[in-house]
Q: What sequence folds into this?
């Protein structure tokens, strides 16, 4: 069951829909899930004021410094692998770290390659939150989405929402505030990362 506070649009993005590209510093690769406004070039140059946010999932294969994004804040989580050590602070699976885009960050692998999920957004123009949600097979989750744009990234398992079915590494996008029910399907635990964004 899905209860709407307003008319909404749901869209499922499969991994094949993501745009794979190099990091800003050229030291790795990332899969861009979505960017706003649409068709904005990334990474933005210093004079580009159009870029507001970008959601992506990166593959980290080696110890490397992070790209820097002045004027932006970031959320980051590891969803596959043992984790990252960021400036001596461990980021383990299911944990979420928020940091400033201009801060120098050294990312070292704790034990082998990882996949991460994150969002970069302009702090003066965008309000953002990121949270982790888990459910057992067959469990229904009631989510209250209060912002304007929402990305539900399926890190593990699969779920059903209305007629939509979403599997691991896929993303459900909702563009209005609403109360939402998702149902965990299959035989493994469901792990989701919920990113909510709105203009200030």
A:
């Amino acid at each position: 069951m899905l209860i709407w506070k307003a008319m909404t649009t749901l869209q499922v993005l499969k991994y094949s829909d993501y745009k794979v590209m190099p990091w800003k510093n050229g030291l790795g690769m990332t899969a861009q899930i979505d960017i706003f406004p649409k068709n904005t070039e990334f990474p933005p140059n210093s004079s580009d004021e159009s870029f507001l946010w970008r959601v992506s999932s990166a593959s980290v294969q080696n110890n490397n410094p992070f790209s820097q994004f002045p004027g932006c804040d970031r959320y980051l989580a590891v969803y596959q692998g043992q984790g990252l050590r960021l400036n001596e602070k461990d980021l383990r699976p299911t944990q979420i770290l928020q940091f400033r885009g201009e801060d120098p960050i050294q990312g070292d692998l704790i034990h082998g390659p990882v996949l991460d999920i994150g969002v970069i957004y302009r702090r003066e123009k965008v309000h953002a939150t990121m949270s982790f949600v888990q459910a057992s097979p067959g469990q229904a989750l009631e989510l209250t989405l209060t912002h304007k744009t929402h990305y539900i990234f399926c890190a593990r398992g699969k779920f059903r929402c209305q007629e939509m079915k979403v599997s691991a590494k896929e993303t459900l996008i909702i563009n209005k505030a609403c109360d939402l029910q998702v149902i965990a399907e299959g035989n493994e635990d469901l792990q989701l990362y919920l990113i909510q964004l709105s203009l200030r």
